[in-house]
Design a protein that fits this description.
Length: 290
């Protein structure tokens, strides 16, 4: 399958348009930082566990349906063993490369009854990677909307998530976030405890810091969104952790229906939901990568 490469200096980003316009590769100073398979087709066989992929028109888990919202019936069906509908609809669909270097995909009008369009733009400049994500409502009435990116960063990696509040479980999410404490206080750079799967909010700047001491690298992850959240998952049986910037909290559809914080946004006809991301890299201590 075709790979579209963006590069400048020591950073290389590889995108697979055919498989969700996903980040197949993020290479800095010759080292792969994402969980990148040797065979790109592995993305198709296990789409949730490799690289980095766009989540739209929702992130994380929602009810598989049927769920009524106004005159519309939401019934995406389950795509995950726990019976939920997870990570949206566009993570493995073919996206179309555009003349301006961006990628786009149309969706909806099915189990997600609103038609929509998602877009991704990639820019690599110096020691920085910028990603611009958008979700456009192409239906004639307001649509619930969520947008995010799900990268898997290879271990060993240290992480700080500078959030003062947390939803402690993405599987059984509490209605309100609580102040961070214990293993959920990730405001200092360190190893992510195994088995953590939570969402942080009330973020300060920069919301995420990543460090690869063995590679002599660090990066700040900056997020531009009206309601930024950061999900992190650290499965004990995987050689990577997920650090996922997104626009809403887990169970975003339930939150919308119940009036809970962190809900999916209601996006008017023709309106656009945007999520801007920047990974700004530098060498630790000014030294060279070994």
């Amino acid at each position: 399958m075709d790979e579209v490469t963006f590069t400048d200096g020591e950073i290389e980003v590889g995108i697979l348009p055919e498989l969700g316009a996903r980040l197949h590769r993020l290479r800095v100073a010759g080292r792969d930082l994402l969980r990148t398979p040797a065979d790109p087709a592995e993305h198709r066989r296990s789409p949730f566990l490799w690289g980095g992929y766009v989540m739209a028109p929702w992130c994380n888990r929602i009810e598989a349906g049927p769920v009524a919202l106004g005159s519309r019936l939401i019934h995406p069906g389950s795509n995950f063993p726990d019976g939920t509908a997870i990570h949206g609809q566009v993570y493995a669909r073919p996206w179309e490369p555009q003349a301006d270097g961006s990628f786009r995909v149309r969706g909806g009008g099915d189990g997600w009854p609103w038609e929509y369009e998602a877009g991704l733009r990639v820019e690599v400049a110096g020691w920085s990677v910028r990603l611009e994500l958008e979700l456009v409502n192409r239906a004639e009435d307001p649509m619930p909307a969520g947008l995010g990116l799900h990268p898997w960063f290879r271990r060993p990696v240290l992480v700080a998530i500078r959030g003062d509040a947390v939803y402690r479980s993405n599987l059984d999410s509490e209605p309100e976030p609580v102040p961070v404490d214990g293993p959920y206080d990730r405001r200092t750079v360190g190893e992510m405890p195994a088995g953590l799967d939570a969402t942080w909010t009330r973020l300060s700047e920069p919301p995420v810091e990543l460090r690869w001491p063995d590679l002599g690298l660090r990066a700040d992850l900056r997020i531009a969104a009206s309601t930024p959240h950061v999900v992190a998952a650290s499965p004990g049986d995987l050689d990577a952790i997920a650090v996922e910037p997104q626009t809403h909290a887990p169970q975003g559809l339930r939150r919308l229906l119940r009036g809970e914080p962190g809900a999916l946004a209601m996006l008017g006809p023709g309106r656009v939901l945007r999520l801007g991301l920047e990974l700004a890299f530098e060498r630790l201590g000014g030294g060279k990568v070994p």
